[in-house]
Design brief:
By secondary structure, this protein is mostly helical. It has one domain. It is built from 6 helices and no strands.
Length: about 180
């Protein structure tokens, strides 16, 4: 059985705290990078290209994925369930953002910017804390890490593909222009 020592738990917790700041800061920046780049399509894969809910999910997904790559080398031997933990934390973020958004807008009838920002911050914190819990918990079957990697790859492909070819569904509709994808 794999048991983490207290110093290892502290180290992992610090990494997850730093990850919170990293994801929030980079995610907030990615809201603007598409326009700052002169609307370069390759930048649009990683940035919000419009004001749809789907495009805002990129603001959590890509920074979380980039941070996973940063922390993999120093943490891979100190943790259990690395890819499962990071995938579940990331998926929580991209599930909770639309869940909260559609719930509160169903009641208010409109989007409220401070609630959207607060939601993003709180959801990132929840995702990173869930990741920490799984990184320091009991070992899950190793096959789950392979499934987790597959989920991350599929999500990355979906975010890239739907930037250019979004389905005509409400989650992909730009709240400002009514368009879909890069317009």
């Amino acid at each position: 059985m794999f048991v983490l020592s207290q110093p290892n738990r502290r180290t992992i917790f610090v990494y997850e705290l730093v990850g919170m700041v990293f994801i929030i800061f980079l995610g907030s920046t990615l809201h603007f990078t598409f326009d700052w780049s002169g609307r370069q399509p390759i930048v649009g894969v990683f940035s919000a290209v419009n004001e749809s809910v789907w495009e805002h999910l990129k603001l959590a997904f890509w920074p979380a994925l980039f941070y996973l790559l940063i922390e993999y080398a120093p943490l891979r031997k100190q943790t259990v369930n690395f890819f499962s933990a990071k995938t579940i934390g990331t998926c929580l973020m991209i599930i909770l953002i639309p869940a909260v958004f559609y719930s509160y807008t169903a009641v208010t009838g409109k989007s409220i910017f401070p609630i959207d920002i607060s939601t993003f911050i709180i959801v990132v914190i929840i995702g990173q804390l869930a990741s920490y819990k799984l990184l320091t918990g009991k070992a899950l079957p190793k096959k789950l890490n392979l499934v987790a990697i597959g989920v991350l790859v599929l999500l990355a492909l979906a975010f890239a593909l739907f930037t250019f070819y979004p389905p005509q569904l409400p989650i992909f509709k730009d709240a400002v222009t009514g368009g879909y994808g890069i317009t």
